[in-house]
Design brief:
NAD(P)-binding protein, 7-stranded parallel β-sheet, SDR_fam, 7 strands, Rossmann fold, alpha/beta, oxidoreductase activity, acting on the CH-OH group of donors, NAD or NADP as acceptor, binds NADPH dihydro-nicotinamide-adenine-dinucleotide phosphate, 15% strand
């Protein structure tokens, strides 16, 4: 089943930690070549070393990329080595939350950071990759959405808005590619324990932990398994939309 991923070229944004990093290992384990991007070069280097040690036949290319810059996105995508440049699968995973606080208290910087990363960055990367997919009439774009797209929650106005935008982009892309065999998938996880959990509370781990209210959160690996499952279906079928919750999460 996962043999369908053998030799595929998979571009993952936000591959330096959490869900993106877990996806990198699981795609590599399935024999896919991985193109890994994020801002932290040192962390990308660690992921690359681990993949080379465990799956030596897999091609790994890393590139530092801040998805908020359209110029950087275009440069990085056009600098992918020729043997990997035909992207079969894009995992649009880079994302963040900052300043989990009432709208009246949120700063311009926090608003911009979330919208620029989660919405504009995702659009820049999608635009840069989709062109080639349309020319080749093949490809798969997997969006890392969130259950935050389905409901608002206290102090989540900006983050929920960005993930609602991801949902809207996903559905619009699906309409845009009707009749073209390009797969579009959105995964909407609930609670996942990653660095994100602490970052969104400005480093306050006790606040981050309190969110779980005694529920065991999912792991990055749980989500990556679902990404790889969606990516490895038969060419004729698409896993279009997945909501994943921690067991016990409402
Ligand atoms: P992490 O913080 O572990 O990972 C976020 C990744 O995004 C990192 O690799 C980070 O890399 C990258 N990133 C952040 N900003 C940028 C940027 N401007 N340019 C490029 N890369 C960037 O958190 P998760 O793994 O949890 O998050 C991954 C995705 O999952 C996000 O889209 C998040 O919204 C989504 N999600 C997470 C949930 C959770 O509970 N954890 C629940 C639902 C969805 P670097 O800092 O090196 O750039």
């Amino acid at each position: 089943m996962f043999s369908r991923l053998l030799g595929k070229n998979v571009l993952i944004t936000g591959a330096s930690s959490g869900i993106g990093e877990a996806c990198a290992y699981q795609f590599a384990a399935a024999g896919a070549n991985v193109i890994l991007t994020a801002r932290r070069a040192d962390r990308l280097g660690e992921v690359q070393s681990k993949i080379s040690a465990n799956w030596p036949k897999v091609n790994v290319h890393t590139a530092t990329l801040d998805v908020r810059s359209s110029a950087e996105v275009e440069k990085v995508i056009s600098s992918i080595p020729t043997n990997l440049s035909a992207i079969d699968i894009l995992v649009n995973n880079a994302g963040m939350a900052l300043g989990v606080k009432p709208v009246s208290e949120v700063s311009n910087e926090e608003i911009d950071a979330m919208i620029d990363t989660n919405v504009k960055g995702l659009l820049y990367v999608t635009r840069a990759v989709l062109k080639g997919m349309k020319e080749r009439k093949s490809g798969h774009i997997i969006m890392m959405g969130s259950i935050a797209a389905l409901t608002g929650y206290m102090n989540g106005s900006i983050y929920c808005a960005t993930k609602s935008a991801v949902r809207a982009i996903t559905e619009s892309l699906r309409a845009e590619t009707i009749g073209v065999p390009i797969k579009i998938t959105e995964i909407k996880p609930g609670m996942v324990e990653t660095e994100f959990s602490v970052i969104r509370y400005g480093g306050d781990k006790s606040k981050a932990d309190a969110v779980y209210r005694g529920i065991e959160p999912m792991t990055a690996e749980d989500v990556a398994e679902t990404v790889v499952f969606a990516a490895s279906r038969h060419p004729r079928c698409v896993v279009a939309d997945v909501v994943m919750l921690a067991n016990g999460q409402a």
